[in-house]
Protein: 8-oxoguanine deaminase
Organism: Streptomyces nogalater
Amino acid sequence: MGPSAAQRVVIENCAIATVDAGDTEYAFGYLVLAGNRIEAVGAGEAPRTLENVVRRIDGRGHLATPGLVNTHHHFYQWITRGLATDHNLFDWLVALYPVWARIDERMTYTAAQGSLAMMARGGVTTAMDHHYVYPRGSGDLSGSIIRAAAEMGVRFTLARGSMDRGEKDGGLPPDFAVETLQDALRATEETVERHHDASFDAMTQVAVAPCSPFSVSTELLREAAELARRLGVRLHTHGSETVQEEKFCHELFGMGPTDYFESTGWLGEDVWMAHCVHMNDSDIRAFARTKTGVAHCPSSNARLGAGIARVPDLLKAGVPVGLGVDGTASNESGELHTELRNALLINRLGAHREAALNARQALRLGTYGGARVLGRADQIGSLEPGKLADVVLWKMDTLAHASITDPVTALVLGAPAPVTASFVNGRQIVDNGRLLTADEDAIAVGTREEARRLARIAAQD
């Protein structure tokens, strides 16, 4: 269907933050969505002569932005929230791996519903899930997660994770919760071949994602990178999250995490890593030189006491940086808008103080920055003609925000703003703060039941 024949939705009379290359903003403007694309963005009143307009949305008192892009998450953790709340990363993993090792297909599907619903109702239009726990006999976990995302109507990247270093090999997870090297590679390749869509308007993509340097073998890291590049998909893992990880890499490999990743083929513009908290100047230069991306997870980093990532220095060096919720066992809110605010506030506690980040930089991290990290900056992340129609309309005229003159400042620093409308691929999935694609109350009941079932099973061990 050509643009002239497409059904159009017009959003008008609103403030607009396009997050384009020039940070173009309109105090009073409009957007035209034609099918699944953005057709026009401009100042003033919307044209009255457009054909095939099926709906006009009066955005008075609202701010329109690109949809938020989440670059790191672990959906299954939705059913283990509120546990090990006073632990560092390694102690937290030791406490929770025996529980996670008992997950099954029903649990991952239900947990994915909970994670996706919370993000979608809070302005996320593109989500990702780094799933790396595949206990033997647990069913089609990857398929269940992808199915939940498709039903929710959210654009989605599954980072098909893996672990092959269990307890007997000096790793943290139970041995029955890890895969062999060959099984992990085979299952990852099958997932890519079955589910990855490389088209411009893809709703589902797959990345190759061994878990972390301390839970996978060097062979798995190296061969996974080769697999991803043979298949033409992106690579994702955890990197430089804690001081303990730094020590582990030096003791086992004789080098720090960044040098180790480079030695295994894991730096490049097709790679993004979660956290990247403990990086020195040389590490940052290596990421900038190779255009390796970073998923910044400020709430999780604080929850686990990991530290403050050097986001201002990463951005100055030209490193692609997006935001991540991280798993909800280390970020119980499960909501990306919180990360806009926390990225700004926590980074101001670092070396750069009040000059670390501003509100517009935080919004860019959560939109265009995330799109760049996921390799989709040509398609999403900013409001520009020709890009996909992933748009959020935030209500900014309530008690919580009405007295803040600048709507971007209000969105980032204020209380979580209500989402009046959220569109993904031109389809509305949120209306006045409620999901249109799922029953939130039923999901709440289901996640509670699955959390209790998992707790009962884990207690029997």
Remarks:
- The two ends are 57 Å apart (CA to CA).
- The first helix runs from residue 89 to 100.
- The chain has 14 helices and 17 strands.
